[in-house]
Design a protein that fits this description.
The protein has 12 helices and no strands. It is an all-alpha fold. The protein has one domain. The two termini are 16 Å apart.
C-alpha cells in the first residue's frame, strides 16, 4: 500500500480518535455549544476562504441551502451533541456510541431498499452492536457506563449524522469538495452559535474561560481534527475503496478509550472492554464483509 495512503489512513485513525479527548479538555473551560461553534466556524472559514481564493467557483443559493441541511445535521445535531455530552460522559464511551453510525446507515438503507432482505451478516452486526450498547447502560458496580440522558443525546447525534450523511450522498458534489465541507462547517457552526446564545452560555463566559489548555485544544480540533482529518478522509474517498476509507469508524473508539484511560483517568473496566469488542466488531463486520466478498 502506498505511503501516502497509509499516512492518510493513520490520520483518520489517530487524529479523529484523539478528538474526543481534546473535546473533553476544551469543555472543562469553554461552554460546549460555544466550543462547537468556534471549532466549526473557524475551520469552515479557513477551508472555504482558502479554496475560494484559489479560484473555486462561487456556490449557488441552492448549494448553500443544501449545505445548511447537511451542516445542521452533521455538525450541529451530530458533533454539537457530542461536545455537549463531553462534559458528562467519558470520552471513550462517547466514541463507542458514535461508532454506531455505520449501523444506522445500514438500517436506514434497509428501509430504503424496499423488498430487499438484509443479509445475515448485516442482521448479526446490528444485533451485536446493540448488545454492546446494552452492556454500557445496564447498571453495575464498576465505572465506565453512560447515563440514560447521555445515551439518549448521543443516539440522537448518531441518527442525525447518519441521516445527514445519506442526504449528502444524494447531492451533486461541488467542483472542489472541501469548499462544500467548509460551507457545512460554517452553517453548522452558526447554528451552534445560536444554540449557545439560547442556552445562556454567553452570560457564563469570561476571559478566564479561554485558558491555555482550552485554546490549545481548540487549535488542535480546528487544524488537526477538522481541516487535516477531513482533508485526509476526502482524499481517501477519492483514491481507495470506501471500505478502507471507513476503517476509522472501528479504530477511533479504541484510540479514544485508550487515550481517555491514559491521560484523563477514565475507567477501563472489563465490561467496557467487552462492549468495545462488540461494537467495534459489529462495525467491522458490516463494513468489511462486503469488501472481502468482492475481492
Amino acid at each position: 500500500m502506498p505511503l501516502r495512503v497509509l499516512l492518510a489512513i493513520a490520520a483518520t485513525w489517530l487524529i479523529w480518535g484523539s478528538t474526543y479527548l481534546a473535546i473533553a479538555i476544551v469543555v472543562r473551560d469553554v461552554p460546549p455549544f460555544l466550543a462547537s461553534a468556534i471549532r466549526n466556524m473557524t475551520a469552515g472559514a479557513l477551508l472555504y476562504g482558502t479554496f475560494r481564493l484559489r479560484g473555486a467557483p462561487r456556490p449557488s443559493a441552492a448549494q448553500w441551502r443544501t449545505a445548511a441541511i447537511v451542516g445542521v445535521s452533521l455538525l450541529a445535531l451530530g458533533n454539537g451533541a457530542v461536545t455537549w455530552a463531553a462534559r458528562r460522559e467519558p470520552s471513550g464511551i462517547i466514541a463507542l456510541v458514535v461508532a454506531l453510525v455505520p449501523l444506522w446507515l445500514l438500517v436506514f438503507g434497509w428501509f430504503g431498499r424496499r423488498g430487499v432482505r438484509p443479509a445475515g451478516y448485516e442482521v448479526s452486526g446490528v444485533l451485536l452492536g446493540l448488545g454492546g450498547i446494552a452492556l454500557l447502560v445496564v447498571p453495575h458496580d464498576g465505572g465506565g457506563t453512560v447515563s440514560p440522558l447521555g445515551l439518549g443525546v448521543l443516539l440522537v447525534s448518531t441518527l442525525a449524522w447518519a441521516g445527514g450523511s445519506l442526504y449528502a450522498r444524494t447531492l451533486e458534489p461541488l467542483p472542489v469538495p472541501l469548499v462544500g465541507t467548509g460551507m457545512e462547517m460554517l452553517l453548522g457552526g452558526s447554528a451552534m452559535l445560536v444554540a449557545s446564545a439560547s442556552a445562556g452560555e454567553w452570560g457564563r463566559l469570561g476571559a478566564a474561560s479561554f485558558t491555555p489548555r482550552a485554546l490549545a485544544g481548540l487549535a488542535y480540533l480546528v487544524l488537526a481534527g477538522s481541516i487535516l482529518g477531513f482533508s485526509a478522509y476526502k482524499w481517501l474517498l477519492a483514491n481507495v475503496r470506501p471500505a478502507i476509507a471507513g476503517t476509522y469508524a472501528f479504530v477511533n473508539p479504541v484510540v479514544a478509550i485508550l487515550l481517555g484511560w491514559a491521560f484523563a483517568g477514565e475507567a477501563l473496566t472489563g465490561r467496557l472492554v467487552a462492549a468495545m469488542g462488540m461494537i467495534v466488531g459489529a462495525v467491522a463486520m458490516i463494513s468489511l464483509v462486503p469488501y472481502l466478498r468482492s475481492r
